[in-house]
Amino acid sequence: MHNIIEVRNLTKYYPAIKNAKDFLLSPFRRHHVLALDDINLDVERGSILGLLGPNGAGKTTLIKILSTLVHPTSGSARINGFDVVRQERQVRRSIGIVMTEERSFYWRLTGRQNLEFFATLNNLNSRQRDKRVHEVLCQTELDKDGDRMFKDYSTGMKQRLAIARGLLCDPDVILLDEPTRSLDPHAARNMRDFLKEKIIGQTRRSAILATHNLQEVEALCSHVAIIKNGSLIIQETIDTLKAQTAGDYYLLRLASNRTSIDLGSLPAVQGLMPLFGTPNLFQVKTDKISTVLKEIMDRGGTVEECVRKKVTLEDIFSKAIKG
Amino acid sequence: MFFNNAFAFLKKDLLNEMSYKLSFCLQIAGIFVSVAMLFFISRLFGQAQIPAIAKYGGDYFAFVIIGVAFSSYLEVSVNSMSRKIREGQMMGTLEALLATQAELPTIIISSSLYSFLFTSVRVLVYILIGVIVFGLNIGGANYPGAIIILVLSIIAFSSIGILSASFIMIFKKGDPVARIFSSLSWLLGGVYYPIEILPQWLEKVSLFLPITHSLEGMRFALLKGYDLRALMPSIICLILFTVIVMPVSLLFFSSAVKFAKRDGSLTQY
Q1: Which residue of A has its CA nearest to B91?
Q2: What is the distance between the alpha carbons of residues A212 and A191, in angstroms, rounded to a whole number?
Q3: Yes or no, beta carbons of A104 and B5 under 8 Å apart
């Protein structure tokens, strides 16, 4: 099987809470909020998909449907060939969910006791359980802190224990919902490195990483999907996406006293656009740069700075969300 | 797998409870306070034989200690499952539990086991103190019969507990089932007084409550040593109640889980 996750025409409506007016005027009519709108998504075996989208886009709903915690209104989703509604048990056997919500642990149990408990619920017998708990504690570098109470862990340690819990069954697919949320930038970077080196990089495990953090997606993922208002607007490999979009560009800064040059009338500068609302900062396509520079010089303009920039995921994301 | 999961829950809850040392000690102390209360009630009645409870041997202390001890199972069976769901929703652990390979019924039942274990310890202490300190005579008791009655009672009470858990799953708070059932059971089930002293129409109503048959069977087994044949009316009533209510409760529960998953509110509170 080529795709480990297949989502087809997945739609999810949540019931909306009625306000007083609705209660009076239409007491029996159901009100709904659209969370996912006809999503089609494939995740190749062994690939890491970054799931991006603004708040309320539907990322968590999609993760919860794939985790069997929420049923879709229509459409289907299959993991490892198993249907998330009709074959919940088999699906849960195939996935590891990394819930970074720290309240999902028992605070007055040690990290090890927490993992032992969840390992038993994942059907590991006592020998497998002890071995696996030791392995995941080592993998997440918590082996020395395994016997400390969860309440005494730092935020970073709590996140790592959440990852350890997700790995207990050595799942084919790991679903990560914002693994660096609530970490400071330094800890977030360490967590990204850790995920890359220890969790994702060393295995052929597939993963979906739902996040707001574009750096995280660029660092960890091979593919990206962008959801907006419940609709999937982009699904591509990151490299293809960058190639398909604007490509690399030049950032051009003119001397501020020369901004009166009418750049818009330059013959070959379609694709040259002012940036950030500043009058002297422009983005120029790479194939136009020599023409633009020549025209500016010819018209007496002064170029203060000309830097080649790579298209980042942030550029693509902003464009997709605005568009 | 069920037993592994059940043991894991039991161990987790025990470790968790013992980590709150003061609360754990107070829970244990609470048992002795309850027994002391029963002691004073027994002093009120002394050795007087009460005709209304003559069929149980006439000793009020023996009557009430069995009523109070075994009705604790009613409280646990009816309330613990819904309480554990609510607790999991509030604390945030329910989502993590549901993401494991354990089935929801296993999770719900296993999470109640600690309460059952603690209740059993409490009942045992009640009975032991009753026997050692207050001269409660259960020497001629039919213990296998009492165990059968106890198991059937727990299953019968739990069918209401499952119904109550279904309400909590959907409405989150304010479950009417457990409240009404518990109140009626305490009022009409013969915990503190025999049902024969109730007005006749209320006595008839009490016959629809499993606790009435549970306590009657338990008192006959422990205080009178009745054999299984004599206990059969209580056993049949408890089985009948379970056969009628349990399928309805399981159906409700299954529908409630599906509803909550469709609704996306399974882990909300």
Answers
A1: A103
A2: 15
A3: no
d(CA A10, CA A41): 9
Residue A268 pLDDT: 47
Q: Is residue B54 assigned to a domain?
A: yes
Residues A37-58 pLDDT 10s: 999 999 988 888 999 988 888 9
| A69/B267 touch (CB, cutoff 8 Å), yes or no | yes
**What are A48's strand-pairing partners?**
A207
pLDDT beyond 90 at B27: no
CA angle A78, A47, A200 (to 5 degrees): 115
State the pLDDT confidence band at B48, using cuts at 50, 70 and 90.
low
- Asked if residue B250 is part of any domain, the answer here is yes
Question: In the predicted model, is pLDDT for residue A23 greater than 60?
Answer: yes
Q: B100–A61: do the CB atoms touch at under 8 Å? A: no
Closest-CA residue to A211 (of A54, A102, A103, A316): A54
Q: What is the chain A residue with the closest CA to B98? A: A69
The separation between CA A207 and the C-alpha centre of its own chain, rounded to angstroms, equals 10
B97–A113 C-beta distance less than 8 A: no
Residues of chain A contacting B, Cβ within 8 Å: 12, 14-15, 35, 61, 64, 67-71, 73, 89, 92-93, 97, 99, 101, 103-106, 108-109, 113, 116-118, 120-123, 125-126, 149, 165, 169
Number of domains forming the structure of chain B: 1
Show residues of chain B in contact with A15, CB under 8 Å.
Answer: 263
Write the burial class of residue A29 (CB in 10 Å: 0-12 exposed, 13-18 middle, 19+ buried): exposed
Q: Which of A69, A93, A149 sits opposite B95 (nearest CB)?
A: A69
Tell me the ipTM for this assembly.
0.84
β partners of residue B24: none
3-state secondary structure of A295: helix
CA distance B146 to chain A (A): 33
CB count, 10 Å around CB of B20? 12
- Min Cα separation A166/chain B (Å): 10
Name the average pLDDT for chain A: 83
Domain that holds residue B41: 2-263
In a domain, B30, yes or no: yes
Q: Which of A15, A123, A126 sits opposite B101 (nearest CB)?
A: A123
In a domain, B269, yes or no: no
Q: What phi and psi, each to the nearest 5 degrees, are found at residue A305?
A: -150, 140
User: CA A207, A210, A212 angle in degrees (round to 5)?
Assistant: 140
**Residues near B72 by beta carbon (within 8 Å), at least 6 away in sequence:** B119, B122, B123
